[in-house]
Write a structure and sequence with these properties.
Length: 288
């Protein structure tokens, strides 16, 4: 496996050996194979920070080019509100060029897994968001997710745009918690309080909770930076000033200097600029 995820190798090997999992680069085969077509390609930041939809739309074109039966197209990539409409337009355009009467529906089904816990997050999701206004698509999605929906009802069905926004709202809320705690840590440092005591003191309130309130050198990873940025670009585009999200980004940007300012202070670099010359630093837990 080119990536490390606990439990993934065994799962892939078993299901591949038993014929339930097939890998192919043959797009036609992939499209003809299933009624449900998942789009789960990257949506990296474009030059201006908005989500680059070229890969999503390319897959939509591929599906439309090869489909020979009606399809449910499920968008699992994190995409701005309105993307399902763009996917629909793309598919319909190609079908029109093909002079095809085939029909399809586009469902939003955002993914909430964390890297490093992908398998368990996938098999035991907190919630399964299904954005659709089609009854048929909803029933198919319910059937698909039945094995992951046994111990309680986890499926939440809503309109497509709300589902698209739910994904950004979740990541932005978590990023906000982190930036808030980083702000508190900076205040604690200046007033002589210990942020670890504060963390435990506020986390014990179930309305706040212990999760995502660890201060550090700013949030990173594959999603928070790009997703907060993408929602900011969305708000800019609709002429709404998102003050909280912009502050979350500013605090995060500033926090990245934190580690270096500690190093500088520890080695008194302002007095001894060569103090770290030739030294080797170990950074634990850094993901590149
Ligand atoms: N990584 C996460 O933890 C995570 C969690 C939730 C949601 N997401 C979202 O899921 C989406 C994918 O993220 P990722 O981390 O898996 O990205 P990734 O870049 O690791 O993987 C995307 C894959 O899509 C393939 N691809 C690109 N264009 C293609 C095409 N036209 N046809 C077929 N394959 C194509 C790429 O080769 C690549 O293997 C993003 O929108 C991301 O925001 C990611
Ligand atoms: O209290 C905390 C918790 C996290 N982080 C940082 O936040 C970033 C994100 O961490 P984590 O959420 O564990 O990893 P991701 O794989 O980026 O997962 C996030 O992004 C995914 C992609 O959208 C979502 O699916 C997940 O629900 C969401 O947690 C990392 O830089 C962490 O160091 C903190 O600084 N303090």
């Amino acid at each position: 496996m080119p990536i490390f995820e606990p439990g993934l190798t065994a799962l892939v090997e078993k299901n591949h050996a038993e014929g339930r999992l097939i890998f192919t680069t043959d797009a036609k085969f992939g499209v003809e194979f299933g009624k449900l077509q998942f789009i789960a390609v990257g949506t990296p930041p474009d030059e201006d920070g908005s989500a680059d939809l070229q890969y999503v739309l390319k897959v939509a074109e591929t599906i439309a080019t090869h489909m020979s039966t009606d399809k449910v197209i499920i968008n699992k990539s994190t995409v701005p509100v309105g993307t399902a409409e763009k996917v629909s337009t793309q598919v319909q355009t190609v079908l029109n060029e093909r002079d095809s009467q085939l029909t399809f529906t586009v469902v939003s089904n955002p993914e909430f897994l964390k890297e490093g816990a992908a398998v368990s997050d996938c098999q035991r999701p907190d919630r399964i968001i299904i954005g659709t206004d089609s009854n048929v698509a909803e029933q198919l999605m319910r059937l698909l997710y039945e094995p992951f929906n046994r111990n309680r009802e986890k499926i939440i069905v809503m309109d497509v745009k709300s589902a698209e926004l739910t994904k950004y709202a979740a990541n932005c809320m978590l990023a906000t918690k982190i930036s808030f705690m980083n702000e508190m840590a900076n205040i604690a440092e200046r007033v002589g309080a210990d942020i670890e005591n504060v963390r435990q003191g506020i986390g014990s309130d179930p309305r706040i909770g212990y999760q995502f309130i660890y201060p550090g050198c700013g949030y990173g990873g594959s999603c928070f930076p790009k997703d907060v940025q993408a929602l900011v670009r969305t708000t800019d585009a609709i002429g709404y000033e998102s003050e909280i999200l912009k502050a979350v980004e500013r605090v995060n940007f500033r926090q990245k200097d934190k580690l270096f300012s500690y190093i500088s202070k520890h080695f008194k670099l302002d007095q001894y600029p060569d103090a770290i010359k030739g030294k080797t630093f170990a950074l634990w837990g850094v993901i590149i």
